[in-house]
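Issue 218. Parser rejects a valid record. Input:
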Amino acid sequence: MNLPLLGADDIQALGPTGAVDALEAALSGGLDPETAPARHHVTVPGGELLIMPATTQQVTGVKIAGVAPDNPSRDLPRITGSYLLLDAPTLLPLALLDGAALTTLRTPAVSALAIRHLTGPVVHHLVLFGTGPQAYGHLDAVLAERQVERVTVVGRTPHRAEALAAHARRLGVDARTAQAPGDAEVATADLVLCCTTSAAPLFDGALVPDGATVVAVGSHTPDAREVDTALVARSAVIVESRSAALSEAGDLLIPMAEGAFRAEDIHANLAELVTGRAPGGAPAGFEGPRFFKSVGMGWEDLAVAAAVHRDSAP
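Output the parser choked on:
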């Protein structure tokens, strides 16, 4: 029997809403992100190899992803990879998926799931940092979840930022660009998305309005961050899992090293947010901003890969 190969078209067919629903169903069904297997990091000549296993009673899977920092200069994608999906009881392979396309769909879906539970139905001003595939994916995912009135794209390369703004306009959203650092834009935002490779804070976190939501997905190492200590210290902080965030999220680990944040200050993990079991109460009742930090976890890839495989079955 030939192993089915599910490519980018098959994965994109699930769509942002399908991916968000798959993630929410996994968490509502009892999946505990805190017990999910950890990601393994391997340094290789081209950059970094990430090995991400996960399992449920029904399916098991592993993503092998490459992070190649020099690839964009070669007109190649920075993120590469493959995903092997297996039947859990027998461990027989079910399908091989395009790992880069899977990541491009699932990372925005994780953010959109948090946004589904952290924001109201209308986003008046979305500020989007970044111009790569994740920025496009996040824009599409947010538009699938929320009515967005205005978008400001902040990017280091003007023509790339304008291309993304033009894409947003084609989707029917009022969009324009702004030069970094974008502090003036952040000060009027109710949703800020950070989808960059920056290792240093992108904006002044003291300017983020109370009640706004900030999502950061660009870094997964302890020495890199997209938001500053000021934002973290005044926010209700939500993470995918405490264990993953406290080992990989520089956005939190750096403020902790500075004495401005503690592990016990984490408001909730994503499962607690989705099921309404946040120890700190509903984030909507928190006076300051809401900050969701994502580092990416294997259970998310598994949930979305299983949904793609299910929908692609004849």
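Fixed in the parser; the record now loads. The domain at 5-103+299-312 is CATH 3.30.1780.10 (ornithine cyclodeaminase, domain 1).
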